[in-house]
Amino acid sequence: MSGSPSLDKIPITVVAAGSSARLHWRRRTVQAAVLIIAMLIPLSGLLRIDPVAGAFVVLDRQIWWSDFFIIFGLWLMLASGLVLMYSSVGTAFCGWACPQNTLSELANRWTYKLLGRRADVSLAGEKMKVAAGKNRLGNWLLLGLIILAAAMLFSLIPLLYFYPPDVVWSFITLRPDERLASSLHYIYTIFVIIFFVDIAFIRHFWCRFMCVYKVWQHGFKTRQSLHVAYDEARSESCEKCNYCVTSCFLGIDPRDTNMYDSCINCGECIDACNELQEKKGEVGLLHFSLGAREQSRSGWLLGRLGSLSARMKWTLPFSLLGLGMFAWGLVSYEYYRLAVYRADAEFSSSIEDYRIRVSNKLYRDAVLTISIEGLPKGSYVLSAGEVRFDTAGKVDLELNINNTLPPGLHRFLVQVQSADGWRDSYRVQHFVSKGRG
Ligand code: SF4
Ligand code: SF4
């Protein structure tokens, strides 16, 4: 009984556990998908970073901090989405999606295969227990090579965020390419060292003691967040059995989880118990629960729906606001930008000089025409009337006003027009004092 007459009328179907390893393979699929998505994001051009311009690049468009609606809208969507994730599925991100955990699990797997089941890289600094029959130089070397190969492979992913795919391909195939910065080899080597140390030594130590996500997540996690629940009523089945505990690679007893333990909701213990109970034709004693920790299995579905809708009530408005701002930012996005500055400080001359900065934010060629309206001909010199871009970039022009203008206030417009029809102008108030002119 849920305690609510209306909720009690909703029929509940309890689905029996299927194949005992179903969570394991679903999790592996999600982990692989996350790594593939991490590569597809820069490869598809959805998001990159231009280290030279110091800007994010979305679909070949530079996103500047001044593109407020895009930046703030995206941030609002991400922040509200993360809060919803923290408070509902809790640590499931760690167990199912986080690349750090994926790499640590892979490293553990190779280590067990080559050095034995008890060859743990201990988080407490204990000595590794290598199986006597496997403690051979060949096994150690092979493990080192596998970890190095993994480090070299995974180090290519961050490179894809900083360089176009064809440049990274030139780097991999050792093809000469003038776009390859000499620092790229250095940056790549640093990445390989970081990944190697992480995979070889740090592994789950990061998850337990260093992860910032976990700190945030503990701030929003509640007793209702996703967790492993135990069927106490059938506890006699656990006599002389410890299988779920030994299957947990974080050393947790899943029959007694609490809010702030290190459980990452991977579900390996659930699979383990299901595997045992399946032989007796029964379902396992462990299951995921989203709702009050005391809730019984029969109330799981109602608890999950109620719990999710309660959280969405206050995160959804922020997500929608962020989505709206983001969409407006994209609709009103301008490919070009004009800015005019008084150049007295920069060029250490008088305020007769102005600096006109025109920018192309799109990674394609462009032609911008610049003109001055409102000043008599012969009273100024503009360093160029046209700017050609091969790709995204900024060009500074100089506008010098000579001393033929009479004293007083002069208003003029700096106008810019692109070949594809975009226009913008900047109004300048120029004052000539009596002592000049
Ligand atoms: S695997 Fe299942 S039966 Fe065995 S101890 Fe764990 S919960 Fe109990
Ligand atoms: S208790 Fe179960 S779900 Fe939690 S980390 Fe251990 S095996 Fe994974």
Protein architecture, described:
The chain is elongated, with a radius of gyration of 31 Å. It has helices at 5-8, 22-43, 68-88, 92-96, 99-115, 137-154, 156-162, 165-172, 183-202, 204-210, 212-220, 243-247, 268-278, 300-331; strands at 48-50, 55-58, 61-63, 227-230, 286-289, 336-342, 353-360, 366-373, 380-382, 386-389, 393-401, 408-418, 423-432. Among the domains are: 22-64 and 90-220, no CATH class; 336-432, Immunoglobulin-like. The strands form four sheets. It has a four-stranded antiparallel beta sheet with strand order 6-7-11-9, with no helix packed on it. The protein has 437 residues and is α+β, with helices and mostly antiparallel strands. Bound molecules: iron/sulfur cluster (2 copies). Residues 237-238, 241-244, 255, 272-273, 276, 284-286 line the site of one iron/sulfur cluster.
